[in-house]
Each structure stands twice: as structure tokens, then as C-alpha cells.
Amino acid sequence: MNDATDSSGFFGSHYISIGISIGILLLITTITLTFYICTRSINDLGLDEETIMSYSRMLYSEVKLKKNDSTSTCCSICLGDYKGSDMLKVLPDCEHLFHLKCIETWLRMHPTCPLCRTSLIPTPLAEVVPLPTRRDSSYIDRH
């Protein structure tokens, strides 16, 4: 009689252990899926139209004159070669160039530069305390 009680107690605690294990796995799965869905929806949000339109535009012929050899010759989004009459958009910070229509479509879906993945989301801190984009010798000499 004592053996029957012990065996039912063993199986009862075994079922409790299995239940707790399944509960923990479900909790981990739920947290992981929630995190994935939330971060995916945040990362897939592009920039607002006002921000996209605020980026400077230039004709490729003008860019070519200003930057000489360092200018790329094709759009990295559509892989089409630039023509002198093509209107390009220049991204802030990284200064990468793209066809106007290509980059505007990209930025509506993604808040980053397609080449270097620099974030283009305006932050309140950047407006209050602008950071130098590069450290040249004149900046170092003054500080």
C-alpha cells in the first residue's frame, strides 16, 4: 500500500515538472515572438515625407565637378549608371548619392542609408548638441 502511494506521488510530481517545463518554453517563445514582431515593425518604418524632401538634391554633372574622382558612377539601388542630367539626392552625414526616385522609395521603407546603414532618423539630441561629422586638424587644434 505504501508503494502505491509513493508511485502515484512520483508520477504526480513528474507531471508537474513537465507542466512547468512546457510553461517556461511557451513563455520564452511568446517573449521571443513579441520581441521579433516589435523590432521588425520598428525597423521597417521609413522616414516621413518632410524629412525625405529636406535632403539636398544635385544634378550629377554638378556633383561630378565638385567631387571629382570620389564620385560613384552608378546608383547602388537600381545599379543604373548616372547621366549628367540625372537628379540625385545626397544623404546627410554619409553624403552617399542615389537617383532621386530610387532613394525616396527606399527611405519610405527604411530609415537607413542603403550603402553604409547610417541611421537617418532625426534625434532630438542631434538638434541640441550637433556633433562634428569628421575630425580634421583645425577641429583638434581648437580643442
Architecture blueprint of SSEs:
Blueprint: H1 2-43, H2 49-54, E1 57-59, H3 60-67, E2 87-90, E3 97-99, H4 100-109, H5 124-128, H6 137-142
Antiparallel strand pairs: 1-2, 2-3
Could you walk me through the main structural features you see in this protein, from its secondary elements to its overall organization?
With 143 residues, this protein is mainly α. It folds into 2 domains: 1-44; 49-122, 2-Layer Sandwich (Herpes Virus-1), CATH 3.30.40.10. The protein is built from 6 helices and 3 strands; from the N terminus they run ααβαββααα. The protein has helices at 2-43, 49-54, 60-67, 100-109, 124-128, 137-142, and strands spanning 57-59, 87-90, 97-99. It has a 3-stranded antiparallel sheet with strand order 1-2-3. β2 (87-90) and β3 (97-99) form a beta hairpin. The protein is rod-shaped, with a radius of gyration of 28 Å. Residues 133-143 have low confidence and may be disordered.
